[in-house]
Structure formats: C-alpha cells, structure tokens
Specification:
Rossmann fold, Luciferase, domain 3, 611 residues, eight-stranded mixed beta sheet, alpha/beta, 19 helices, GMP Synthetase, Chain A, domain 3, seven-stranded mixed beta sheet, 30 strands
Length: 611
Amino acid sequence: MKSKKSQLIGITDVAKKIPMLVNKGPKMLKGLLIANNKNETKNVGLGWAFNQALQSNPSGAAILYEDRTISYQLLDAWSSRIANYLLSRDIRKGDVVAVFIENRPELLALAIACAKVGAVLALVNSAQTGKVLTHSIRLVEAKLVVVGAELASELHEIVDTLEVTKDDILWWADTDTLVETGKTEHGFTNFAEQINRNSAVCPQSARFIFKDDGLFYIFTSGTTGMPKAVIFSHGRWMKAYGTFGHIMDLGSDDIMYVTLPLYHATGIAVCWSSVIKGAGAIAMRRKFSSSNFWSDVHKFNASSFGYVGELCRYLLDTPGSELEKTHRVTKMIGNGLRPSIWAEFKQRFNIKEVYEFYASSEGNIGFSNIFNFENTVGFSPMEYDIIKYDKEKNQPVKDQRGYCVRSELGEPGLLIGKITDKTPFDGYTDPEKTKDVIMENVFGSGDRFFNTGDLMRNIGFKHAQFVDRLGDTFRWKGENVSTTEVESIMADQDLISEAIVYGVEVTGTNGRAGMAAITLADGSKCDDSSLKKLFDSLKVELPAYAVPLFLRIQKQVERTGTFKYSKNKLKEESFDPSKCSERLIFANPNGEFADIDAKVFDAIESGEYRL
C-alpha cells in the first residue's frame, strides 16, 4: 500500500502533463463551454446531440448488438416513429414514460424518442421485483410503461398494484423488433406493431427542448427507504456530453463496448454521450460476462469501454488469454477502479488512458481524471469542500462557532458540493428527501451545500481520491444497496422480528456484501427449512445483489440513545466468529446454508466460495 505522501499530486506531476494539456486543451475548453451553457431558450439535450451525430455520420454505425448493426439514419427513423406514436397517445413534454427492459437497442431508441417529444424516461432497474418495482413505477406517476418480454412476467406479477391500465403497458418482443413484432403476452399492447404505423419524420417538438427540461428519472437507493427517483435534465446530459465527450475525444471510427446497465447514469449518460459526441458506435451486451468480455471486444473491434470497479476486479480474476492483449482498446471510462489494482489492470490489459470520474445521479459535484493521473477520480472545476467528519458520532466536526472544519491535505473527509446558480441541486421527487441532503450555514451564514455522503481525500491541485461511503448505503455488485429498504422487506418475513442490515468487507471482492443481524419472531426456529423459506422470499422481493449473504442471530437488538440501530460494532465484528459469540450463518449463493466457524470463515476469506 502506498504511503499518504506518495498519493499526493505535486507540481512535478502536473508539469509532466503540460504537453497533453496543450494538445487537448482547446477541445476541452470547447467542451466546458457546451457543458456550462446557461441559455434557457437554446435547443439542447440528447435529441440535439444525436442530431449532430446524425448529420456528420448518417450511414455510420450507431449501435452494435449481437449480430445487428443499426446506423444513425435507421436509429433516427426508428426513434421518430416511436416519438410520433407517443404523441398519438397524448404524451407531451414533462409526461413520464417508465421503461423496464434489459440492455438492448430498443432502450436507446426509446430514450431518443422521449427526448424528441420532451417526455421523461424513467429508467427502472431491471433487477427490481415485487414491492420495490411497484414503488418505483408509482413514484414517478408514469402515464405509460414499456416492458421487454424478458421482464414481462415480473411486471405482470405486480400489475394490479399499478395506477396504469393494461392498455398503457407497451410490450416489446425479446428479438429484433425492427423485423419481428412477436406475439404479445399478458394482454399488454404490442409496442412494435403500434410503432410501425407511424411516420419516420422527426416531430417538431424536438426543436423545443431546453436545458431545464427533464430527460430521465434515474433511481437511486439513497440512504433511507425505498428507491428515490432523481431527475436528470437535458442540461445535465449536455454537461456529460461537453465534459466526457471532449475528454474521451472519440471519432466516427471509434466503438465503445458497454456492458454496464443502462438504467444507471454511467452507462446511458457518460458512456453514450461520449460515443454520440464522436458520432461513433456503442457496442452493447445484455449483461456483463467476464469470460466473454475480450472476445466481444474483438468481435466488435472496440476501441474503448465503460467500467465500474467491480467489472475490473472480475476481469483480473479471469485466466489470461491472448485476446486480452491483441485488441485496439486504448481508453476506458468509469468509476470505482481501486488504487490497489489500478496499475496492475492497465499493465495486464495494455490500457493507456483511464478516465476515472466521480459523480452521482442526484449530485451537483463531479470530478474527472482529465490528466490521466493514477489512483484519482480527478479534477473538479466546481465549488466544493472536503470537511472533517467524525465517523463515531456520524456527523461533521464543528469549530467553536459551530461551523464545519476543512480537512487537511491528504486527510479523508466528507465531500460537499456548494449549491449555486452554476451548480444547482435538482433534488428528488420527494421534497423532504431533498431537504435531508442539503447542509446550511456550513462555513458562514446563508451558504448551502449538497451532502454527497462520500468520504474523499484531497491529494492536491484540486484532485481527489475516493475513500468510502457513509450512511445507510453500501455498494455490492456495482449497485447501491439501501439498508433501510432491505430492512423493511426482511421485517415483513414470518421468521424475523427485527433486522439490521449493513455492508461488510470480504477479502478479494469490491464493495461490501450484505449482512443482516436479526432477532427471531416469537416461536420461530432458525433451521434449514425456515432459512430456505426466508431466502426464497427475499429473492422474490429484492434484487439479487441486495439479498444478504450473512446472517447474525441476536437475542436482542442494540440501539443508541436516540433509538437508532448501533451498526458500528456490528460492522467491525462482521462475520468473524472470533469476534462474535452469537450464531453466524453464511447463505451460500448456491442455495446452501452453513454456520460460520473458523474453517468456513477462512474458506470465505480465501476465495474458496465465489461470491
């Protein structure tokens, strides 16, 4: 592990980057001007950006998927037909269309269509089921719901809990719907059949989309309760387009391989905007596969790819092959690449440029590694601070006047973004949840900051290094898991009286695996039969990544003086039997259960079980 001093960026490090800055500087300056456009009457956003690429590369590939190639011209006509159908259903600017579909071209065509109309596309997490799925769709008050056949059964299970009728649910076959419309199911409307009856001419509404108009609802677990819907405006799309598009500097012959879920901003905003800026192609895969990653890179002739830290860890765990060296990939963009594997990853896979960034769907602060430094989320031109934070008390450190205290160089602290006209905070659909993350009177009377909930380290020259997440959210399998959401679902189970959920570190993995300390309901026994029933139910109600892997059976729940669960000690003791005298259970992903003793603990920590 590097020392704190070696992690800091010095003037010599910056000086070495001057030739690169001279070369890329003008393009990046142009990108910043686009990203920070304040003209509220100028046509901007996804539809505008797509049209720029269409004009410059009409016959070039826009999407590569399986054995299909979709040109910009074809994608434009397809999205216009969808847009005109939406207009025929009286969908207008500001109306919400929810989409529940896995990664495939139909999702991107629908996104462009909604952008042409001015409708807001709610990107529902394709792993959601049951109560969480119902909550997400009802939360955004969707007028239409689009579902892929691959997820139709999950939607059908909860259709009676929604406020839309079956006529308002549009079904897309799990095939090339430009060729085959398929036979609909569950009485849903066949979307492809309806689309084909409409004009391929772009509607006039596309000319009247402005920076403050909504583009997406992106769902985030946040820190409490069920998923929250974060509005992602066309102005924010332009920030991604102007910033990442110009940093990546892709061209019409470039192809970005994206296996990240497109219901997250990293895939649909950061990666896709970079592709559209260069009028290049996005090569899509339904779901990430470590064993097929490099063969896909060759198949699509990709020159870059999008990542999250977990993806990089999985690739490092795969056996070496010739394919991982003999490719034309030189760039990657994403977040969460750990400093411990940064250099190893670049060297093994022959990657020259890592454009790590930091941002959140709802936040007003972002960092980007435009200088290609090692082990940093990069630089931010925005107004922010990193303040001292007391993890034991779970609150910022204050001075004698009651104001926050800035962290020292190299010292971890809480990242906060100043709320200004240039860096507004758009907030959530729920005003109370918006209020919860705004800090006031931080350094002086009247100032306002967005609380990111993330610990960062200032490493010099306005560069930062990600340290950890705070609060009741942890990250596992590339997803944010709300502990409150999982606790709520677990508390509904017959076996459980109370549940405390938290994330624990497992050696050799990224993020934190889910663990729950539970007390049993009166008369309940924690045997294999009841455990199977419990986990079968959790797998229905929760996404797979949110189902806890470890249980701790408690006789009594420990609380703080303010009646909050005491999680710090639970996190510290984790699933280590040498630190805990209570019963610990490992829910093997294969569907088996084992009491954790020293032998099982060592097997988990050594990687014998693949998590």
